[in-house]
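hiii, so i know i said id send this last week but things got crazy w the move. better late than never?? heres the sequnce for the chain we talked about at the cafe, plus the structure i predicted for it. fair warning i was half asleep when i ran it
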Amino acid sequence: MKNLQNKIKSLAENYFKDTVEIRRHLHTYPELSFKEYKTSEYIQQKLTAYGIPFTSGLVETGVVGLIKGKNPNSKCIALRADIDALPIQELNDSGYTSKNKGVMHACGHDVHTASLLGVGRILNELKEEWKGTIKLIFQPGEEKLPGGASLMIAEGVLENPKVDKIIGQHVSPELDSGVIGMRGGMFMASADEIYIDVIGKGGHAALPKDRVNPLLIASKIITTLYDRFDRLKDTPSVFSLGVIKGGSVGNIIPDTVSLQGTFRAMNEEWRKEAHQIMRDICYSTAQEMSGKCDIDIKVGYPFLKNDESFTNLCFENAQKFIGAKNVIEIPKRMTAEDFSYYSHHVPACFYRLGVGINNQERKHLHNAYFDIDESALKNSIGIMSWLAINS
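okay and structure toks below
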């Protein structure tokens, strides 16, 4: 296996520049969730050039490549990359700044896609030296409900051949380039979208009699909700409101005020209980203040739980490939990922790829200035190739 490891490292070195070029192309021409038509075509062109058979059209823009090694029926390991971008106007000034107005790969999906293409190229070249089948999943729509992962699963992406285990990676600017972060068990939270409409009775602000000010009701709802959920210490969850919309001028009481927020949790029973708590607070508060309230909770991605034994195996194999000091255990995260759907169907290992640029301020994900240390791409294609064939 040491000889095969060296071959993978050599190919990762050889294909590094090509992988960087692919990442820059994808970064220059990002596309929004479920509209990744040119991205899908580009992926198909690359797979064709590498001689990797594939099927396209899953959830319209999804692509699935298949590489068969020796004894291909012995196991099937899936590797997943998300391909969509975010509705953000990029503010970087580089040779690969987004040319699509208001769209940016600010979450690193360009890195994930470029990496998986590089992994496919390496594994296809070495397919006579490893056993089983590798399924390359290029998935649309990670950033938008209901999540491309759930739709691809519904369309059979984990079947024909049946997937035994699945691996995914996500860029992490918090970690230095060259470092991998892993965690077995519960890893990432579920994510729900909260929409609240507070309904009052508007009119002239100087004539408050017979008016019901929805701004006051909304204020009480907000403070009550935060008081309720901020008291929690033993249940890992987050309630947060990010939008308040209501009114147009200072001397008019509006009829309605709208709130938008999110709820994250790592326990399904508590998740459902929390939804009812939100509804009860909203309805009762509005009623007590002579108003009304509508609340819509859009249930989003489930929690992401890495398989303990599989992740431990990947942790050990990653250490063998890049050294023990470069593979670290990382804490749970209250962020969410639709890779979580896969983790509820087959044993999964979802890990973080360090892309932090040394001696520079780290630009966080979903930021108009987000960028990476591209040397991480050499690490990403090598480590995922090694993990795949040793799973």
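btw The chain has a mean pLDDT of 96. thought thatd interest u
miss u guys!!
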